[in-house]
Amino acid sequence: MEIELINTGYFKLDGGAMFGVVPKTLWQRTNPADENNLCNWALRALLIKEGNRAILVDNGIGNKQSEKFFRHYFLHGDDSLAKNLHNVGVHEDDITDMMLTHLHFDHCGGGIKYAGENLVPTFKNATYWSNEAHWQWATVPNPREKASFLRENILPMQESGHLRFVPLADQQVLPFEIIFVDGHTDKQMLPKITYKGHTLVFTADLLPSVGHIPLPYVMGYDTRPLLTMEEKARFLQEAADNKYVLVFQHDPVNECCTVKHTGKGVRVDQVFPFRDL
User: Fold this and answer.
1) Which residues of the chain have pLDDT under 70?
2) Which helix (H) or strand (E) holds 134?
3) How far is CA 121 from CA 95, 102, 234, in A?
4) Which of 25, 100, 157, 178 is an S-S bond match for 128, by CB 3.0 to 4.6 Å?
């Protein structure tokens, strides 16, 4: 198995929204804000090559939205999905499986593109993997999340015939375990992968950054923040006990870390780039 961390770009979100009830005087120590209270965030994807499969986990925001849309999120930097896939010798047509941790626009927008006036899969040879419970959640959205579930990002997966669902009870369709969590959104899927003697977990929006490791540091975007805290507590206990490597999707500085038990709970142990694994 080979794994590459693919940066699809950077964007900005309000620091208060990203840290919920935690005061700015605390969260700005790890995630400093600009004059508009916006923090910088990465948009990473995970590329897993296993046998004859090339599996991409998430794909960033994409570029098909309007200029007005992008003004809200300040997409910036020189990185892009296509550029950084090509930099590791992978073309969009080489992707066999496109797994979506969940269907918020910053995780799935790059999976659908315009071909003329038609919306088509970016990865024409790939199976797109979600799960039935989350698909229902995303296609009949609650008012809190409606702005994050964009129909043009989601429905073409099904309309094109590329969509399949990961069974909740039998995950043998992909060559790694999946952790299901429900605090941020219903049935978010986190890949748990054995790699080079380590257990890696791509933490997606359960733990967007190193700054979110303390239990109260929960996003205002989460639909069930108390459940997120319970899920984080269980996961971090397991991660510290078993020396998991946490791979961050949104941390603009830190790609990976391990965690340890302390008198104040589970905290960061070592921080390092993915290439050091």
Assistant:
1) 170-171
2) helix 132-139
3) 11, 17, 36
4) 157
CA–CA separation, 128 vs 247, rounded Å?
A: 22
Tens-digit pLDDT profile for residues 38-77: 999 999 999 999 999 999 999 999 999 888 888 899 999 9
- Rounded to 5°, the CA angle 151-154-159 comes to 100
Taking only the tens place, the pLDDT of each residue in 233-257 is 999 999 999 999 999 999 999 999 9
Whether the Cβ atoms of residue 82 and residue 92 lie closer than 8 Å to each other: yes
- Which tokens in the block code for residue 98? 């496109």
Q: Looking at residue 168, what is its pLDDT?
A: 83
Q: Quote the pLDDT of residue 207.
A: 98
Q: Is the dihedral of CA 220, 221, 227, 231 positive or negative?
A: negative
Q: 148, 131, 193: which is closest to 5 by C-alpha?
A: 193
Helix (H) or strand (E) holding 98: strand 97-99
How far is 35 from 198, CA to CA, in rounded Å?
40
pLDDT score at 143: 93
Q: Could you tell me whether strands 163-165 and 127-130 are parallel, antiparallel, or unpaired per DSSP bridges?
A: parallel
Calculate ∠ Cα 231-24-18, nearest 5°. Answer: 40
**Count of CB atoms within 10 A of residue 52's CB?**
6
Strand ranges (E), 100-248 = 112-115, 118-121, 127-130, 163-165, 177-181, 188-195, 198-202, 245-247
Distance CA 96, CA 99 (A): 10
One-letter amino acid of 39: C
